[in-house]
Amino acid sequence: MNVSEEGGKPTFRLSASASQGAIPDSDPWLRVLGGETYSRRHALFTNHVFVQGNKFQDDPMRRIFSPAHGMGVEIINAKGLAKTVIAVNGKNHSGSRHANNVETKISEQKEILIDLIEERTILGQPAFLPFRFRYHPANCSASIRDVKEAINDRFSDEKVPLDAAVTDVFGAGCTQVTGKAIPDFLHSIGNNGEAFVGRPLEGSLRTGAFRYCGWVGSYPRSDIPKRL
Fold this sequence. Notes:
It contains 5 helices and 12 strands. By secondary structure, it is α+β, with helices and mostly antiparallel strands. It has 2 domains: 154 residues, Arylsulfatase, C-terminal domain, CATH 3.30.1120; 43 residues, no CATH class.
């Protein structure tokens, strides 16, 4: 793990692969991210459970921020708890640069804001999936609560016509189905679960990518006439 600091902004970069060095265990790593002061930030990273409605759930932050090869973390305003921003980044999907995947900060209403970021969008701009949490220190080991108010408004996108009628027509382009494509399709949606389907000298097909076409495994070869 490489650690650097510039202008009060510590940066942690884990090794890109196992051959370049081991990554730290999860608990010590999360304690580093949580800081030494008992606070919202400390609870977010060190609690094992959080409250969702009337139930206790495993803290998802422990999975989102768990150490992984190639992972980088920047902590902005590390000593100013109210203005601290923690950003997780890694190589983008093309491998050409580093891009933020997760950002967490404290809002003016003292809520914990967490954005999951996806850069692969049709608009060519990152999309944010926002979550809100509140800190209740009196609850000790379960001091983080999920905020459900206005959750649908947070997860909606004005650019997506969610209020469209079921009879509306959406243009999605067109393609020509060839005889070779049909057995490829049937092979990919067979009983392979989530496994990638090997195709020598060609791109891999992932079974899950075909789910929108119907229930996995519901297209036996006998359903397709031989003449096709």
